[in-house]
Specification:
The protein is of the alpha/beta class. Helix 1 packs across helix 4. It starts with 5 loop residues before the first strand and ends with a helix. A hairpin with a 3-residue loop joins strand 1 and strand 2. The protein folds into two domains: 242 residues, ATPase, nucleotide binding domain (Nucleotidyltransferase, domain 5, 2-Layer Sandwich); 167 residues, Nucleotidyltransferase, domain 5, CATH 3.30.420. The protein is globular.
Length: 438
């Protein structure tokens, strides 16, 4: 893809929508954000949201950025959003009810029925997958004529371009799409999709079309603005940290611990939650542990974390053998739903206790990367860090010691920035650097 005059990346998250505008050279021109109401949840697996809220939020942030990109034509827009958030629409994009969010698990019955038909290594398995949600929604809203299955980013792309029925490699992964073969697999033909049409799938960053006149009027963006195929929020967050090469990894130290490593071929281990997203000709192989910052906050607030970390000697191991978890259960790098947290013995010194937890999470991170390498991912050579934990220097030093490679905070961590890079340069260049994509 040739370079655009400028780009806007839009990130639709759980609690809000953020957008970042970049110049043709990658300089930040402006940022905008707006809060989103929380999805409707009942604590029993229901998590739904009205898609109209998404569009209102997207229009709000684009309107705020429009004056800052007025001279950046031709402008490109890219939207990333939460993975496996799905809705059914009419063929003209009208939502047929609320969307099932990424964490909705109402499709448990459908997932059980699909288990005998969906390959064991497919990301489309499970109640949280897009495919299970499609079957649930089709059963819940039958007899409404031809319908489209669209992810959150797909639907917003349709609102921008008027082309409903487009998706991308990353969002379509949990719907059953095969990004290696770049097609819908044959086993999907054995499933009764009940009149629901699967989307046409584009490479992330591929040109989808110009914004409609209506979208230009609503957003205030300049005439000639183009939209490109999007991606998932976690993939966009990795793209924000680039450029990366095989063996480079990104660890997100947020409430949970999320690992992604760049590989030259896909790696899959669904029983451990390990899947691969394709970006250009490379793959992001990832897994997520339940360990992370949420465990630390059970014992210490932000001020205590800063104070205790400041006087810590990260190069002097505590000898504590912790496996910090917020509660029973782990999937990666250990698949054990009954695994109990291990945080004993607790020393009297809070600083030693905190360092032991830092070491425990770092140990899980190191074990996770070794596990991915054992599955076929490249040997770890460098780690960029995002999330709140990236600012903690003591924790960073502990991780350097335990991982044995360079560990540094990422300069850019926002998914919206990664989406803007994807719009500006295309997938390969967004991951490997502008020189890679032309």
């Amino acid at each position: 893809m040739t370079s655009a005059g400028g780009a806007i990346g839009v990130d639709l998250g759980t609690s809000g929508c953020r957008a970042i505008a970049l110049s043709a050279t990658g300089q930040t021109l402006g940022e905008a954000r707006v809060a989103l109401p929380a999805p409707l949840r009942d604590g029993l697996g229901v998590s739904e949201q009205d898609p109209a809220l998404w569009w209102a939020a997207v229009v709000t942030v684009l309107c705020e950025l429009a004056p800052k990109v007025a001279g950046s034509a031709p402008l490109r827009v890219c939207v990333d959003a939460t993975s496996a958030t799905l809705l059914l629409t009419s063929t003209n994009g009208e939502p047929l009810g609320t969307a099932l969010m990424y964490d909705d698990t109402q499709a448990r019955t459908e997932a059980a029925k699909l288990a005998a038909l969906v390959p064991a290594d497919s990301p489309a398995r499970g109640a949280g997958s897009s495919l299970s949600k499609l079957h649930y929604l089709a059963r819940r809203r039958p007899g409404q004529g031809p319908r489209l299955a669209l992810h959150q980013a797909d639907w917003v792309l349709g609102r921008l371009t008027g082309r409903f029925g487009l998706s991308d490699w990353n969002n379509a992964l949990k719907l059953g799409f095969d990004p290696g073969a770049v097609c819908w697999p044959g086993w999907l033909s054995a499933l009764d999709l009940q009149g629901v049409k699967l989307p046409e799938v584009l490479a992330p960053g591929a040109l989808a079309g110009p914004l409609t006149h209506g979208a230009l009027v609503e957003t205030g963006l300049p005439r000639g603005t183009l939209a490109v195929a999007g991606t998932t929020d976690s993939t966009a967050a990795v793209l924000a940290t680039g450029p990366l090469s095989p063996g480079d990894a990104v660890t997100c130290l947020g409430s949970t611990l999320v690992l992604k490593i760049v590989a030259e071929r896909p790696v899959t281990a669904p029983e451990f939650g390990v899947y691969s997203h394709r970006v250009g000709d490379l793959w992001l192989v990832g897994g997520a542990s339940n360990s992370g910052g949420a465990v630390l906050r059970r014992f210490f607030d932000d001020a205590q974390l800063r104070e205790l970390s400041a006087g810590m000697d990260p190069d002097r191991p505590t000898g504590l053998d912790y496996y910090p978890l917020p509660g029973p259960g782990e999937r990666f790098p250990v698949n054990d739903p009954g695994l109990e947290p291990r945080l004993d013995p607790r020393p009297a010194d809070d600083q030693v206790f905190l360092q032991g937890m830092f070491e425990g999470v770092a140990g899980i991170e190191a074990r996770g990367y070794r596990f991915l390498t054992g599955l076929g991912a490249p040997r770890l050579r460098r780690v960029l860090t995002t999330g709140g934990g990236a600012a903690n220097q003591a924790w960073m030093q502990i991780r350097r010691r335990m991982l044995g490679v360079t560990v540094v905070p990422a300069d850019h961590q926002e998914a919206a920035y990664g989406a803007a890079r994807l719009a500006l340069w295309g997938a390969e260049a967004a991951l490997c650097g502008p020189g890679a994509g032309g």
